[in-house]
């Protein structure tokens, strides 16, 4: 299977979102990654339901909604209504992660779990079979445009090993600081999906950058 590419709209032009979504619709992107921040779980805010609904209206690709919010279980049905196809919650934000993942699936979305840089892969042993997308954060969440941290590569290897041992169907996504220089190594050690914001939107030709990532 070729690597899945999920550009992060966080690095788009919020005054012209329709234009950026149209560009992604016409690109090799497989999904659109949408970052929701509450100013509590992370020291930043992005946007909420009305903007997500507007993105859904224009997007022809599935939306992976990355929730950087506390107690995400409060809003599962609202995110479904607003257009999420995959709902990604942070392990660190969920007291009852198993329940939350079952509720996401019951709401007919794919269930994703994101883990912060400090969270070890062995925390996932008991839950991996319920995870459709494991999103390994390669930066501390909250902001685009940061540098990927090196321990990420080892975590991908450990996650790949856990998935194979357990027989899970989980895909491994990497989020933060992904670009054309580090993507080959991320793929080589086991990444299935790459999220990329600034390296795509700040490039001279975003469509071409997406195509180059997809071709790796
Ligand atoms: O979740 C995120 C930030 O918390 C973003 O998805 C991520 O940072 C993507 O942006 P970039 O590729 O610029 O790092
Ligand atoms: Co994200």
TrEMBL record:
Any matching Pfam family: Ribul_P_3_epim
Positions of the catalytic residues: 35 (proton acceptor), 175 (proton donor)
Enzyme Commission code(s) on record: 5.1.3.1
Catalytic activity annotation: D-ribulose 5-phosphate = D-xylulose 5-phosphate
UniProt binding sites for substrate: 8, 66, 142-145, 175-177, 197-198
Pathway: Carbohydrate degradation
Keywords: Carbohydrate metabolism, Isomerase, Metal-binding
MF annotations from Gene Ontology: D-ribulose-phosphate 3-epimerase activity
Binding site for a divalent metal cation: 33, 35, 66, 175
Cofactor(s) this protein requires: Co(2+); Zn(2+); a divalent metal cation; Mn(2+)
Membrane-spanning intervals of the chain: none
Cofactor note: Binds 1 divalent metal cation per subunit.
Record family assignment: Belongs to the ribulose-phosphate 3-epimerase family.
Functional note: Catalyzes the reversible epimerization of D-ribulose 5-phosphate to D-xylulose 5-phosphate.
Name of the protein: Ribulose-phosphate 3-epimerase
Organism: Gelidibacter pelagius
Lineage of source species: Bacteria, Pseudomonadati, Bacteroidota, Flavobacteriia, Flavobacteriales
């Amino acid at each position: 299977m070729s690597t899945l590419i999920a550009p992060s709209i966080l690095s788009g032009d919020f005054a012209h979102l329709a234009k950026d979504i149209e560009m992604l619709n016409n690109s090799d992107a497989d999904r659109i990654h949408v970052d929701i921040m509450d100013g509590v779980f992370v020291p930043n805010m992005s946007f909420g339901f009305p903007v997500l609904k507007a993105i859904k209206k224009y997007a022809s690709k599935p939306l992976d909604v990355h929730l950087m919010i506390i107690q995400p279980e409060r809003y599962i049905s609202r995110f479904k209504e607003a257009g999420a196809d995959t709902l990604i919650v942070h392990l660190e934000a969920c007291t009852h992660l198993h329940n939350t993942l079952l509720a996401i699936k019951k709401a007919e979305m794919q269930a994703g779990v994101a883990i912060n840089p400090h969270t070890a892969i062995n925390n996932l042993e008991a839950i991996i079979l319920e995870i459709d997308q494991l999103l390994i954060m390669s930066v501390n969440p909250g902001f685009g445009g940061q540098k990927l941290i090196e321990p990420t590569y080892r975590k991908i290897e450990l996650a790949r090993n856990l998935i194979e041992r357990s027989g899970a169907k989980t895909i491994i996504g990497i989020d933060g600081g992904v670009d054309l220089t580090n993507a080959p190594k991320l793929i080589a050690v086991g990444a299935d999906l790459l999220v990329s914001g600034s390296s795509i939107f700040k490039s001279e030709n975003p469509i071409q950058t997406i195509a180059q990532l997809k071709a790796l």
